[in-house]
Write a structure and sequence with these properties.
The protein is mainly beta and 212 residues long. The chain has 2 helices and 17 strands. A hairpin with a 4-residue loop joins strand 15 and strand 16.
Length: 212
C-alpha cells in the first residue's frame, strides 16, 4: 500500500517579519539562564524532545538570535527559535516541563526528516496512542542500537499542551531484529518489537505535497 508523503501542517512556520530593534524584548544570557529583565522572567533551554507546533510572531532576542512566540502558549512561559527541524525551545523557570506521561497525548504524527520534515502517517485512536506512550514510559530501558536501518520521528500531540510536540525517535534495526523507541531528552531507549509496524507504510512515494 502506497502513501504519499505530506509536509506536516503543524510544522509550517507562521513567522512575522521584524528586526532585532527596540520592539523586541532584550534577553540577557547568564550561563544556562536566559533572563528577561523587563518582565523579571528567567528562561531555560528545553530538551530536544520539545518542539513547537507553529511558530508565531517574533518576541525577544539575545544577540543575533531571535526568539518567537509559540502559537497557543503564553510567551511568558514558552518561546522558540525560528524552527525548520532545528532550533531550540525555551521555558520559564515557573513552568513545569511535562514528561511524556504528563503530556496526555491524543495523537501521534509519524514523520521522516531529510531537507524538510514530512508526515507519512498518524496514530489517532486513543488506546493505540496510550499503548505507544506506555511502551516508552513503562518499558525497561535498554541500550540504543549503534546504527539502525530506518528511523522515524514520533511527534506526540496534546490538547493540554497544544502548542508543542513531544518528539521521540522510532528506530528499526535489522542487526538485532528488534525495533526501538528512543527519547533524546531523557536518553531512555526501549525495545518495542512490532508495535509500530501497523502504522508504517509498506511503500512510500517520494513526491511531497504540502498539507493545507
Amino acid at each position: 500500500m502506497k502513501k504519499v508523503l505530506f509536509a506536516a501542517i503543524a510544522l509550517t512556520l507562521a513567522l512575522t517579519t521584524s528586526s532585532c530593534g527596540s520592539n523586541l524584548i532584550k534577553i540577557t544570557v547568564d550561563g544556562e539562564k536566559y533572563i528577561d529583565k523587563t518582565n523579571d522572567i528567567t528562561y531555560y533551554g528545553a530538551p530536544v524532545s520539545y518542539e513547537p507546533r507553529t511558530v508565531g510572531a517574533e518576541y525577544a532576542h539575545y544577540g543575533d538570535t531571535v526568539l518567537c512566540q509559540i502559537k497557543g502558549l503564553e510567551p511568558t512561559q514558552w518561546l522558540t527559535e525560528a524552527y525548520d527541524g532545528i532550533g531550540s525551545v525555551y521555558y520559564s523557570s515557573d513552568t513545569v516541563l511535562p514528561t511524556l506521561d504528563m503530556f496526555e497525548p491524543v495523537q501521534i504524527y509519524i514523520c521522516v526528516e531529510d531537507a524538510i520534515t514530512m508526515q507519512i502517517g498518524k496514530v489517532d485512536t486513543q488506546s493505540e496512542v496510550d499503548a505507544i506512550a506506555s511502551a516508552l514510559t513503562d518499558g525497561e530501558a535498554t541500550d540504543m542500537p549503534l546504527a539502525g536501518d530506518d528511523s522515524y520521528h514520533l511527534k506526540f500531540l496534546s490538547d493540554t499542551y497544544y502548542g508543542i510536540y513531544y518528539d521521540v525517535l522510532y528506530i528499526e534495526d535489522s542487526a538485532s531484529g528488534d525495533n526501538y523507541i528512543y527519547d533524546r531528552g531523557t536518553k531512555k531507549c526501549v525495545a518495542v518489537g512490532s508495535l509500530m509496524k501497523t502504522y508504517l507504510p509498506d511503500d512510500v512515494e517520494t513526491t511531497a505535497e504540502t498539507a493545507q
